[in-house]
Structure to design on (377 residues):
């Protein structure tokens, strides 16, 4: 089929079958990830390859890549920033365009003045060891005019997935039969050779790179044989460094056909009694509407919340219905909700955070910054 005539919208039945798998169902490293998608979706691999390429060219899919469990590779945190109103746009642009160690960059508001509502710019930040995250954030303050920031590192992860196509049909309260899995945030040290393979592995794919044998060119890029490349990737997978092979939908901006996958991006906050954080996180994480759920300590700035999570939807009332169902479920299993809040996403950009210590050192040198202490000379 000529490229111009290949359907690229999410509602096409074949695309929907592919996306239901390719968004978040191909876990870990696979030697032939496109074949894995094809087998699970019941679609031949050539069709899978051409459809994903067409959706990527059209912007329906914003990126295709092997994800990493970056919490295992570099210390990271969700960061809430206080920025003067007249500098939020420029600070946003700097975080997204000039700092490769910032990933998600989102403006957020609350429906009413409440704890933390003055923090209107939110980012994720990864700073590889041996460098310091607080020092990096102080440098970003100097560059953007931010007046304060709050680091919110994850103590535990409970869910991580972005199956937006499947989630459109989820009912409030839909959840797994068992509590969510608990994922640790312990850092894994890598050799230089492993970093080279990892950097080639994680780089996103251009449409023309999509082919059944995806990893052959990447092995050459890393200076490895295919057998050596796969052996290292599989070793990293066993050490819980590799995430999933994924096609990331553009879920905030309009697609080429004028449609959006989702309109509302909600960051839920809960405070539960001390000692119940693990149970609460597992109960939140088992709900299908959640794309992310974490144990994070919000501190006094955020009324001491300790569980946070993200959910998306096309209707605000529907998103709130999902949250109300989670609140009710927590209470029903004996976990009191002592405080809760919702931070709504506005402007949003997403890119993979750089996690390589080699890249961090190069970034510092290119900006005339001391890698041991990134403040302007």
């Amino acid at each position: 089929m000529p490229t111009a005539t290949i359907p690229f919208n999410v509602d096409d039945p074949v695309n929907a079958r592919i996306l239901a798998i390719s968004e978040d169902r191909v876990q870990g490293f696979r030697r032939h990830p496109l074949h894995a998608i094809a087998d699970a979706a019941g679609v031949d691999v050539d069709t899978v390859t051409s459809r994903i390429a067409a959706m990527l060219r059209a912007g329906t899919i914003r990126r295709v890549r092997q994800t990493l469990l970056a919490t295992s590779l570099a210390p990271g945190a969700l960061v809430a920033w206080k920025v003067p109103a007249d500098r939020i746009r420029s600070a946003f642009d700097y975080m997204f365009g000039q700092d490769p160690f910032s990933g998600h960059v989102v403006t957020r508001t609350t429906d009413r003045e409440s704890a933390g509502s003055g923090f209107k710019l939110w980012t994720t930040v990864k700073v590889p060891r041996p460098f310091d995250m607080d020092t990096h954030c102080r440098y970003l303050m100097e560059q953007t005019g931010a007046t304060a920031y709050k680091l919110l590192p994850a103590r535990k992860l409970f869910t991580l997935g972005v199956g937006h196509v499947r989630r459109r049909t989820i009912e409030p309260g839909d959840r797994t039969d068992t509590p969510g899995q608990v994922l640790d945030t312990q850092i894994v040290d890598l050799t230089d050779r492993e970093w080279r393979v990892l950097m080639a592995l994680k780089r996103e794919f251009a449409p023309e790179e999509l082919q059944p044998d995806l990893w052959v060119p990447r092995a050459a890029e890393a200076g490895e044989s295919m057998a050596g490349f796969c052996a290292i990737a599989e070793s990293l997978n066993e050490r819980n460094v590799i995430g999933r092979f994924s096609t990331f939908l553009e879920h905030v901006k309009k697609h080429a056909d004028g449609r959006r996958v989702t309109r509302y991006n909600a960051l839920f906050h809960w405070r539960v009694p001390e000692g119940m954080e693990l149970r609460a996180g597992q109960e939140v994480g088992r709900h299908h509407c959640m794309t992310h759920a974490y144990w994070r300590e919000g501190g006094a700035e955020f009324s001491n919340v300790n569980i946070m999570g993200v959910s998306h939807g096309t209707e605000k009332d529907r998103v709130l219905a999902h949250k109300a169902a989670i609140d009710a479920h927590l209470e029903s299993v004996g976990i009191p909700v002592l405080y809760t809040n919702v931070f709504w996403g506005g402007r949003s950009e997403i890119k993979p955070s750089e996690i390589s210590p080699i890249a961090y050192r190069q970034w510092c040198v290119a900006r005339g910054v001391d890698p041991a202490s990134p403040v302007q000379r």
